[in-house]
Amino acid sequence: MAARTVAVVLAGGVGERMGAGRPKQLIEVGGRPILAHAIAAFDAHPGVGEVLVVMAAGHLREAGVIAAPFRSVTSVVEGGATRTASTVAALRVLEDHPDDTRVLFHDAARPFVDAPVIDRVLDALDGHDAVAVGVPSPDTIVVVEDGVVASMPPRETMSRFQTPQGFRLGTIRKAYELALADPALRATDDCGIVHRYLPDVPIRVVAGSERNLKVTQPLDAVVAEHLAQEDLP
């Protein structure tokens, strides 16, 4: 029997760069909140059995109202001040789940993740304990130190990470156990935690989608509205 799959929709950020005065995941595109779009993608996927929403402090009631229509949502919990803290909050909720549970961590600010991307992550988890989603970088990426180019990695080796990032629950638990014991902990995503604290665990990278954009800046919301209109019947 296949292991249970839990999707964690991380909506703990407050979206300061959007300048909207409220969390960006509550902004509407295509007539409904960004958070609703993100939840819907996992709620509709036949491979996902449970959805957990981690919401920014002070907005749990709004998130609960948005999540209420979705059959798979089992909890809406308060996140932390950082991405790391929000993931830890989710792991606490999942304490009673077995180590072989497949868990997908997804940014709520990515409203247009689609079923093929989720499929690729789940398929890769059959043979790997950690999976990332990436798209090739169209730009040259340079390492800058003190305002000067220090190195220029070959563009064909560069990918831009998206979410969901998938793990066996036992793997991400162990990685965070080690990370939280490190006073110098700094991370921006969950694969970064695994890469740093469990370096012997390979992280499989599967193809993402250019539609799977993250709404971070005001211009992103304009693009998201356009994509939402394309999806309307």
Compact summary:
With 233 residues, the protein is of the alpha/beta class. It is built from 7 helices and 11 strands. A 7-stranded mixed sheet has the order 5-4-1-6-10-7-11, with helices on both faces. The chain has a two-stranded antiparallel sheet with strand order 2-3. A two-stranded antiparallel sheet has the order 8-9.
Give your account of this protein's structure.
The protein is an alpha/beta fold and 233 residues long. It has helices spanning 34-43, 60-67, 83-93, 115-124, 169-180, 190-197, 218-231, and strands at 5-11, 28-29, 32-33, 50-55, 73-78, 102-107, 130-136, 143-145, 148-151, 159-168, 204-207. The chain has a 7-stranded mixed β-sheet with strand order 5-4-1-6-10-7-11, with helices on both faces. A hairpin with a 2-residue loop joins β2 (28-29) and β3. It is globular.
The helix/strand order is: EEEHEHEHEHEEEEHHEH
Question: Class by helix and strand content?
Answer: alpha/beta
Largest sheet: 7 strands, mixed
> Would you report the number of β strands?
11
Q: Could you tell me the radius of gyration in angstroms?
A: 17 Å
Shape: globular
List keywords for this structure.
233 residues; alpha/beta; two-stranded antiparallel ribbon; 11 strands; globular
Please give the structural blueprint:
Blueprint: E1 5-11, E2 28-29, E3 32-33, H1 34-43, E4 50-55, H2 60-67, E5 73-78, H3 83-93, E6 102-107, H4 115-124, E7 130-136, E8 143-145, E9 148-151, E10 159-168, H5 169-180, H6 190-197, E11 204-207, H7 218-231
Parallel strand pairs: 1-4, 1-6, 4-5, 7-11
Antiparallel strand pairs: 2-3, 6-10, 7-10, 8-9
